[in-house]
Amino acid sequence: MNLPKPLDTAPSWVPASGHALRHAGVHFDAVRIAGMLAEEVAYRLMTYTDFQAGPIVRQLAGQRNMYFLVPPQTAAAYGWPGGRARALSRGAGCAAYVGVPALDGLTWPLDWRSRPTRDMPFVDPELLHHLLLEVL
């Protein structure tokens, strides 16, 4: 297994401590998937990429959503299955915000299922889409 190369500095959209809301579509788009489906997709993505999947934010309370952070302006290019996954982006007159945890310290109720790395600053949206449809 190849270990991910850590970042020299955190991306500008990652807060220094705690967590912060970031506008989807500016620094990244996000694909939100809930519950056990999110866990299965994240597991397959991590396994397929040798644990270098790119940034996945996990919500530890409520619906237990996961937010797969993909490059900006890319999420809308895919047909995400309605009711199972939702693209969060900038466009069509809507605004979506995603909670982003710091890389270290107390960040509850959010944490990283997979962190951004130098080699994988974002999740590959095509691979994410493929794996999600495979799980369904």
Discrete helix count: 2
Spatial strand sequence of the major β-sheet:
5-2-4-3-7
* Beta-strand content: 25-35%
Mean model confidence by pLDDT: 93
Protein architecture, described:
The protein is an alpha+beta fold and 136 residues long. Helix content is 18%, strand content 26%. The strands form 2 sheets. The chain has a 5-stranded antiparallel sheet, covered by helices on one side. Strands 1-6 form a two-stranded antiparallel ribbon. The model has no long low-confidence stretch (mean pLDDT 93).
Relevant terms:
single chain; 18% helix; 2 helices; 5-stranded antiparallel sheet; alpha+beta; 136 residues; 26% strand; two-stranded antiparallel ribbon
Summarize the structure.
With 136 residues, this protein is of the alpha+beta class.
How would you summarize the topology of this molecule?
Elements: E1 19-23, E2 29-34, H1 35-48, E3 56-59, E4 65-70, E5 85-88, E6 97-101, E7 110-114, H2 125-135
Antiparallel strand pairs: 1-6, 2-4, 2-5, 3-4, 3-7
